[in-house]
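Q: Convert this sequence to structure tokens.
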Amino acid sequence: MTNTILETAREIGPSIAARGDEIEQLATLPIDIVNQIRPSQAFRQYVPADLGGPSSTAWEGLEVIEEYAYHDGSTGWSVAISCTSSLMASYLRDDWGQLIFGDPRSITGGYAAPAGKAIPVDGGLRVSGTWQWGSGTKHCTWIGGGCMLVDDEGRISPRQDGLAFPYVFFELDDVEFIETWEVSGLAGTGSLDYKVTDAFVPEGRWVQIGVDAATRENAFSRFSFYGLLALGIAATSLGIGRRAIDELVALAATKRPQGSSRPLRDRPPIQSDTAIAEAKLRSAWGFVEDTVGACWEAASVGDSPTDEQKRLLRLSATHATQTAAEVTELMYKAAGGAAVYKTSPIQRCFRDVFVATQHAMVAPRTFEVAGRMRLGLETDTGML
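A:
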């Protein structure tokens, strides 16, 4: 089956790449670019078909993320975060699922860690809090935030039905943005802080990630939420790495190192570095495809992926992200002094990919969990 969302990404990607400086300076995606992407449903690829989702597979979604990231890292990241957030559609009560995700123009985002405080009231919750890392929230139709239930004195106090740490959805009017996103890379993601003050969240407009049973049984609800979150970051990083290689290849054809009459590409170390970079990146992408395919096959026939399959998802995601950073650094060094100028796409790739490596889902320490499990040690698998 043709991935029409991917075809759209390839078609409009060059025009997005041409606006990289504008995206970075604005510190969020320009709304006309959002509206250019939106009709393809790239932002909501993991919404199930019964809510009007595009019936993408997990792998097809990652291909789209990687393609947008190739043209612009911030755009790829924004698509990745909204796709991960769209996984919530399979867990929401039907009325809220229809309202939040039934609109084909829907874009959701937010931060899942329980940074907010929620107090039970008649008909729902009263929520206040401040969250970081609000990627893409300025163009979202609904914004979420993780919360902990507390009593009137601020002590953790789950509800009698077990509700303790919901990820709640806010209406846009409830959210105040705090302009904190002044960063070295991925500036166009708009991952600023945001807050709500005494916002009312009606009964059921939330999901307890990793706790609630799915209201819509499908391959996405059986897949790994955290695995796809990590893989979205990995796909973004791989797209950035692929762009770095292509930019080095283009530069090497014309750049002559100081004191040399031959172009950069004639130097054996550059030839070797380019081949090594390509091999590493393709190998990492192949590892991701293999693990995603195995888990998707299981989920598609009604089985939940095993802990070993989910372990490999997380291992492939971290490996891909770290490998993309290594490859981009290699290309940055190969480019020499040309890469330090702001006019060089390679320097933006370098800055963007090393911000991506800081995401908790793909940080180097996540190798430890995969290693512990492979060594047969007792391991908390709750975040797989």
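The chain has three domains: 4-90, 108-207, 223-374.
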